[in-house]
Amino acid sequence: GRKEPYVISVRALDNGDPQQFMDTELYITVGDVSRNDGVPKFLKPEPGQIAEVPEEASVGTAVFQADAMDPDDPNTANGKLVYSFPDDGTIVQKLFQIDPNSGLITTKVPLDREEREEYTLILEARDLGNPVQQTSRLLTVVVKDVDDHPPQFERQRNSVPLMMEVEEEMPINMKIGEVIAIDKDIGRNAVIDYAIIYGNDDGVFGISRDDQNRGIITLDKRLDREMSGLHTLTIKCFEPTDRINKISKMPYNKLKLDEIQVKVHVRDKDDNNPTFVERNLTRGVRVNAAIYTEIGKVHADDADAEADVINYHLENVTFHRPKTGMKRDLGESGFLVDPSTGVIQTNQSYGKYADGFFDVVVKATNSPDPTKADFAFLKIFVLQDTDLMKFVFDKNPVNVAKEMKEFKKDIEGAFAQPLTLNVYDNEFYSKVDGSLDFGRTSSCFQVLNQEDVVDLDNVQNLFNSKKNQKLEDLFVKYSVDSVERCARVRTPPKINWIQ
How far apart are CA 273 and CA 222, in angstroms? Predict the structure, then answer.
């Protein structure tokens, strides 16, 4: 506030003629209403100002210099300013610190832009007077990108090759397909280049980056199916500045996520349609099955001696829940089908599909003609452990797995009616106390009568070896100790009146 007094000149006049007057000065000093009325004001940051800090910058890196002023005397408590962050429960105080005297904001930990791109800091400046006067200002801190993420393909280390199909004698420079890699950096740091590093000795194929960072595979030379019907390419992604170090000719390494394998099938005309060896199959999938768990496999043959490789495709999936009468068409989603092997795998968790089953249609084709195809129809039940029984073997899972195919066939032949046995796993036997018996194996299974699931009570009755001598002999042959429910039914704990 103003320290100097206000000076007022006062004049007294009479009404005489001539008029007489006298002047005097009045000094007025304005005292403080409170002992500390000067309010601090931020000079920096200005409203809306943005600060930047590189990601992964070392601890203690300067982010911003805050500055505030107080109209009171800075040599007194009323004018002495202290800077701080409010205790607002945010993560700010774990990542940044502000010097209470100088207002310099620095980092407390290295920051990761991929985790969070910007932070909003609330800065406070207060004096030491009584009562305390304070002000606040917002500062946005942007984490600048550093090129710290190499490009990679989004795939699992055990993923199947990417499948593409082309017709022989197609025009040169035509696009065959594309691959896409990702780089978690941004801007120039996210630009990706591609190269075919293996499987392209004749230079039949080329690859180049388009404006969307995709690797476009093209045909550079004449494609003759009689010379080769299948081309297996290894494609590598890398930063443009690293091309020389990355294009060495090396076989595919599935453990390196900057590589992807592409199989290019060259189609030829044929006169015979693919035919599934078995068109109707019944399988099961557990609600907690891991992604990429193999459910089953379909296989088709083509009678033409020079037929192209058969390609398998998930044509349609329909989910049914008989208890409620629900039916839902899922289109081409729900499962994965390996285009070259016909292996059917999971691609999600199936908890929400409990108590139901899927009708799955798989198409086999090796021709662009849509009429030259065959279809397999699978019924896949969604199973919980409580829906299954299990064999308990007196030997380890490795030995059980070796004999499982023969065991399954022999067990199915031990019954008068045509039953199908689906075995879902071979694991170390879990005792009642939860410990594992490494010398024994449990294998959960389901029994089907044609396409209908046999309920557990009937399964227990069927596998009572005392009623079936042939079954008992097989249990001895394969060291089957017992047949139990896959999941033990636990009795709810009793609660006494004290609880």
Answer: 27
